[in-house]
Fold:
Amino acid sequence: MAVLNPLIIIPARGGSKGIPHKNIKPLCGKPLLLYSVEAARAVCTDLSRIILSTDDPQIADVARDAGLPVPYMRPAELATDTAGSREMMLDAMEWADRQGIAYDAVVLLQPTSPFRTATHISEAMQLFRPDIDMVVSVTEAASNPYYTCFETDGNPDGFLHISKGNGLYTRRQDCPPVWEYNGAVYVINPESLRRQPLGAFARRLPYPMSREDSTDLDTPLDWLVAEAIMSNRNQSDL
Structure:
């Protein structure tokens, strides 16, 4: 298997409504951003290939203090609540192209996944090949459309019917497995990204992760859960 030359993008804009300034908020004593920076550095020793995409000088300084150069700053128009991830990545890719950085895969690491490790990233990268659009990390969905998801489809009587299948499954474990994105790792074909948005990708391979490692920080409750998991792991390591 050929060794990938990745362009690793860590998106960390300054605005955050759910958890104010969450990208540099300390999680168990360390700014959240640094969990992703450290994982990226463990799989890529060429720091020019790790791009922190931020519009916030304070976030950039936290990364620099941890030893990651931050020569690129995200344009303000790509740091709003309505700006898309694809546009953000394309801008970082164009900057890398101008610097003469060659890459055959774009690896997106969102800081809100602190339990994603270098091992997860490496394993996802190993699944990538040039004839697919993306490898994406997933976890088993909490709700299964064959078993616990129902729809009414605008029925005037409002009667529920199962979302998928015939509704005859009597045990969840007998249902086909259903996956959901966990937001931790995306290994993307650059040409696919230039051509179309991620949602239009037809050739996506899953990289399964445990539900605990898939913990994503979006709300204050998520943060409390993450702190509890991390504290428990730290105690177990003693």
Q: What stands out?
A: Residues 45 and 74 are 23 Å apart (CA to CA). The chain has a mean pLDDT of 93. The first strand starts at residue 6 and ends at 11. The first helix runs from residue 32 to 43.
